[in-house]
Amino acid sequence: MSGHNHMKLSFASRSENESFARVTVAAFITQLDPTLEQVDEIKTVVSEAVTNAIIHGYEGKTDGIVTVEAELDGDMISLSVSDQGKGIEDLELARQPLFTSRPELERSGMGFTIMENFMDEFDVVSSEAGGTSLRMKKRIESKKALFN
Q1: Catalytic residue among 5, 14, 71, 107
Q2: 125 forms bridges with which residues in the sheet?
Q3: What are the φ and ψ backbone dihedral angles of 91, each rounded to 5 degrees?
Q4: Which of 50, 56, 43 has its CA nearest to residue 12?
Q5: For this structure, is 139 an active site residue?
Q6: Do 119 and 48 touch, CB atoms closer than 8 A?
Q7: Any catalytic annotation for residue 52?
Q8: CA pair distance 38, 40, nearest whole angstrom
Q9: What is the pTM for the complete model shown?
Q10: Nearest-CA neighbor of 25 among 3, 4, 1, 44?
């Protein structure tokens, strides 16, 4: 695929919208002819990011807005998932494997670790007044390229 394509999706911070975001991004990236493994990785990353925004950013309140943006440029996908929630108090601590600020919800604390491992680039920007934005990139090698 050549050229540039972009999508933006905003939705209420309701847990049932997580699957909507995941499937929408997966459908969008099919233009790059990804492998099933690559699609699964992107879907997992979107699920983790959106769930974090809902549970941690908005603390389960359903009146917030989560925004997912995806951009395709050649064989690169750029993803951004953002909220205007409470932000992350200690970003360095939050990025540690197994850390969770909501242990009562039996969360694994592996969300950031999973996202970092599935993506080529991963960055978090957060402030207590402005919410959190995750920015990620991944190069998608098409199935055609893999089998030629």
Answers
A1: 107
A2: 133
A3: -60, -40
A4: 50
A5: no
A6: no
A7: yes
A8: 5
A9: 0.85
A10: 44
Q: Is 117 a catalytic residue?
A: no
One digit per residue, the tens of pLDDT, for the chain of length 148 reads: 457 999 999 999 999 999 999 999 999 999 999 999 999 999 999 999 999 999 889 998 999 999 999 999 999 999 999 999 998 876 665 656 555 555 555 555 567 888 999 999 999 999 877 899 999 999 998 766 555 5
What are the φ/ψ torsions at residue 74 (nearest 5 degrees)?
Answer: 65, -125
> Which residue is catalytic, options 52, 89, 92, 121?
52
**Tokens encoding 93:** 């601590």
3-class SS string, the chain: CCCEEEEEEEEECCCCHHHHHHHHHHHHHHHHCCCHHHHHHHHHHHHHHHHHHHHHHCCCCCCCEEEEEEEEECCEEEEEEEECCCCCCCHHHHCCCCCCCCHHHCCCCCHHHHHHHHCCEEEEEEECCCEEEEEEEEECCCHHHHCC
